[in-house]
Amino acid sequence: MIRRGRAEGWLKHPIDVLPTWAAFHGVEFNGVKIGPLPGYEDRGSTVIADRTLAGGNVEPLIFVPKDLIISRHNIDLVAKSDHHLREIIEAIGDFGRTTRGAVLTFLLLQATMCCPETKHVGVLNPLTEYIRFLPDELLPTFWTEEEKELLIGTTLKPAVGAKLNSLLREFETMRTATASIDWCAKYWWDEDTGMLTFDDWMRVDAMYRSRALEFPGAGDCMMPCVDMANHAAGDATAALYETDQDGNGLLLLRDGKKIDQGGEITITYGDDKGACENIFSYGFLEDAVTSAKVMFLDLDIPDDDPLRPAKIHISTAAPGFRIFEKDDTIDWESDFIWLVVINEEDGLDFKVRQTIDGKREIQAFWNEQELDTAKLRESLEGDPAWDVFQLRATVLLQNRVEMQIETLRVTQGAKREATIRDVPWRLAERLRSLELEMLERAVTAFDSQVRTVVSFSYPTLQEAHCQSRG
Ligand SMILES: C[S@@+](CC[C@H](N)C(=O)[O-])C[C@H]1O[C@@H](n2cnc3c(N)ncnc32)[C@H](O)[C@@H]1O
């Protein structure tokens, strides 16, 4: 549906019509305009200074009335007077009570209402028009299979796979929950008249993910016009976004910033985000990025661990670990790994307990004491064998990191097929090299952590370790 709407023009507005929409709905621009930046048209539209601006003494650059914010709160308000919206949000149950569920459903209904064939569905509101200004982003969920293959060995590959699976589940929830609603059956699901496909769900997901910002006071939401600002990290960030005391949205020039006429007013989408997350959520990587910054690698409990099923059952942590930059070196963190490295001989035990309603429940014990797995690390830190556990964890991580390096190396040097588009090709290449470099630094850092633990606790082991690692 959305793809067709873009092609036929009923779901597309040229960006130069935005000022008219904005003025009509009370959005104020103060010394800025929205459009492509000459020389950077591939970045879509952005916020551009209409005159020289100096931070500290200018009014908000953009003012957005609170009613226009696409937030869960406002969607609930719209649903009070739009019974079609209310019907579908209620039909999807718990998912409709999440911000993500409410926003994606809302966007889908607005797109449906834009289609000239749709009759008597939904109540037109300013945002029905606004979504026509939003471009389709080439996020990795839209990369072809051969483009996604370029990601083998990067942390983006499993992330995109998991995302597609969860999008499929959400789409299926949506379909099952709304199939018996007459107008949904007719305009969305009917074999002849239905317009929705999984592609539509991917598109509303991409709109939300690439544009949602966390606003103090309003939570995650899409803020029309402020969401036209492109990203620049660090000192290059020109503006901040926030809400005023009445909940209206504001874009404010940073103190001390001076932007010449024609210059870009950027915001930050989060300077701490790693290269993988930037490509995943926004489909680009700034030229200035020189490090993968943060990586999440999955970790499995070995098949030959007799406690594996019980460990999997009780674990609440994400099964993996995060490596990240810290003070010029690489550090790691994981709540999961501690469960992987301990076993029965160390003091771990599981018992099956009968609950009062007759159900059976697995309980974990550490040295005979009931164990809260969320506090496992704390329990282990107090154990005389803490050094051993640390050592096991670090060696395990080191092996996992080396395995990832190997996968990256053997899949290196893929030939570029003519069907592979420029953006996925360049992004995959950059991500591969940034992640490889970070993994290599991690091996060195882990090696020195192992040496420290060994030399401190097991001076005799140190020699053996050094020999084993050459
Ligand atoms: C919140 S939107 C910003 C407005 C968007 N450019 C538009 O045309 O609607 C985020 C998207 O803008 C683009 N973008 C933002 N900052 C960028 C940058 N520094 N370099 C390249 N593309 C950027 C990406 O496509 C990203 O997914």
UniProtKB/TrEMBL annotation:
It comes from the Eukaryota. InterPro entries: SET_dom, SET_dom_sf, SETD3_SETD6_MTase. CDD domains: SET_LSMT. One of its GO terms (cellular component) is nucleus. Gene3D superfamilies: set domain protein methyltransferase, domain 1 (3.90.1410.10). Transmembrane segments: none annotated. Residues 30-270 form the SET domain. GO terms for molecular function: protein-lysine N-methyltransferase activity. PROSITE patterns: SET. This is SET domain-containing protein.
